[in-house]
């Protein structure tokens, strides 16, 4: 077994220094600046995390996510983390001294380790929060899933973990909802439970809080996050217009003559 790299005296600064705009240390600040304009990472909430092979690039906690710099990024080795005896203790190769790492770290790690995701995005989007509030009004039992079908944007989603291709127009997209907790890290066990119960899901809604969305790579995570936000907004607006709530209708497959 190859020993994981250790934190060096220079804090492994080379891990976050690159001229490549696609390098995770450059991409996280760039993505978060775009997400801020969508209201996804307002007031320090939400964020994004990228895995490149064994290395995970993590934003700091409690900072204005749209103003971050590559040098603000934490770097963690999944191999070193797996070898650590205490699962809650994080093994960082690089820690910017003035901050703590994002409180969302254990949730991001769940997407990387349980689903081999390459990127995980957490938003505090109004649409995500409103959808969880609307679901509450459907009563116990019906408030634990967001379902939608017969909308073109569903095709923006992959079929599921280790499955090829995307959902089709007539498929139903199902996103589980978990309850919020006082501390972000306490959501981890519920997020993992939801992943086990819905093995093909790429997202988990957190009631009155937001959504976690992941994908095989940055492109897929971003596409799925944007598609989902579009669908959440559409669902809320359909409800406002008095159109039938999509969770209450069955998929309508037209019959061919
Ligand atoms: C507005 S505080 C939000 C946090 O508690 C949390 O929900 C969040 O999404 C961001 O946590 P952070 O530790 O700043 O990355
Ligand atoms: Zn949050």
From TrEMBL:
It is found in: Cytoplasm. Gene3D superfamilies: Class II aldolase/adducin N-terminal domain. Its main location: cytoplasm. It catalyses: 5-(methylsulfanyl)-D-ribulose 1-phosphate = 5-methylsulfanyl-2,3-dioxopentyl phosphate + H2O. It comes from the Eukaryota. One of its GO terms (cellular component) is cytoplasm. InterPro entries: Aldolase_II/adducin_N, Aldolase_II/adducin_N_sf, MethylthioRu-1-P_deHdtase_MtnB, Salvage_MtnB_euk. One of its GO terms (biological process) is L-methionine salvage from methylthioadenosine. The keyword Amino-acid biosynthesis applies. Binds 1 zinc ion per subunit. Residues 26-236 form the Class II aldolase/adducin N-terminal domain. Substrate binds at residue 104. SMART domains: Aldolase_II. Residues 1-20 are annotated as: Disordered. Keywords: Amino-acid biosynthesis, Cytoplasm, Lyase, Metal-binding, Methionine biosynthesis, Zinc. Its cofactor is Zn(2+). Coiled coil: none annotated. Its EC number is 4.2.1.109. Zn(2+) binds at residues 122, 124, 209. GO terms for molecular function: methylthioribulose 1-phosphate dehydratase activity; zinc ion binding. The keyword Metal-binding applies. PANTHER family: METHYLTHIORIBULOSE-1-PHOSPHATE DEHYDRATASE. Belongs to the aldolase class II family. MtnB subfamily. Catalyzes the dehydration of methylthioribulose-1-phosphate (MTRu-1-P) into 2,3-diketo-5-methylthiopentyl-1-phosphate (DK-MTP-1-P). This is Methylthioribulose-1-phosphate dehydratase. It comes from Diplogelasinospora grovesii. The lineage of its organism: Eukaryota, Fungi, Dikarya, Ascomycota, Pezizomycotina.
């Amino acid at each position: 077994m190859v020993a994981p790299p250790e934190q060096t005296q220079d804090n492994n600064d080379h891990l976050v220094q690159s001229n490549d705009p696609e390098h995770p240390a450059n991409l996280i600040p760039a993505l978060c600046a775009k997400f801020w304009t969508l209201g996804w990472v307002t007031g320090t909430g939400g964020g994004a995390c990228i895995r490149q092979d064994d290395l995970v690039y993590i934003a700091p906690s409690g900072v204005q996510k749209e103003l971050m710099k590559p040098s603000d990024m934490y770097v963690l080795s999944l191999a070193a983390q797996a070898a650590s005896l205490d699962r809650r203790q994080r093994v960082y190769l690089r820690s910017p001294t003035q901050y703590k790492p994002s409180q969302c770290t254990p949730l991001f790690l769940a997407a990387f380790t349980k689903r081999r995701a390459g990127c995980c995005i957490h938003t505090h989007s109004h649409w995500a929060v409103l959808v969880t509030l609307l679901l509450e009004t459907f009563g116990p039992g019906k408030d634990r899933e967001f379902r939608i079908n017969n909308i073109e944007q569903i095709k923006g989603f992959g079929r599921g973990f280790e499955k090829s291709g995307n959902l089709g127009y007539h498929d139903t997209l199902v996103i589980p909802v978990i309850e919020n907790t006082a501390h972000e890290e306490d959501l981890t066990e519920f997020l993992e439970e939801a992943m086990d119960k819905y093995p093909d899901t790429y997202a988990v809604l957190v009631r009155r809080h937001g959504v976690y969305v992941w994908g095989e790579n940055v492109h897929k995570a971003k596409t799925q996050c944007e598609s989902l936000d579009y669908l959440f907004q559409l669902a809320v607006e359909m409800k406002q217009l008095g159109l039938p709530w999509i969770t209450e209708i069955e998929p309508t497959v037209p019959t061919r003559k």
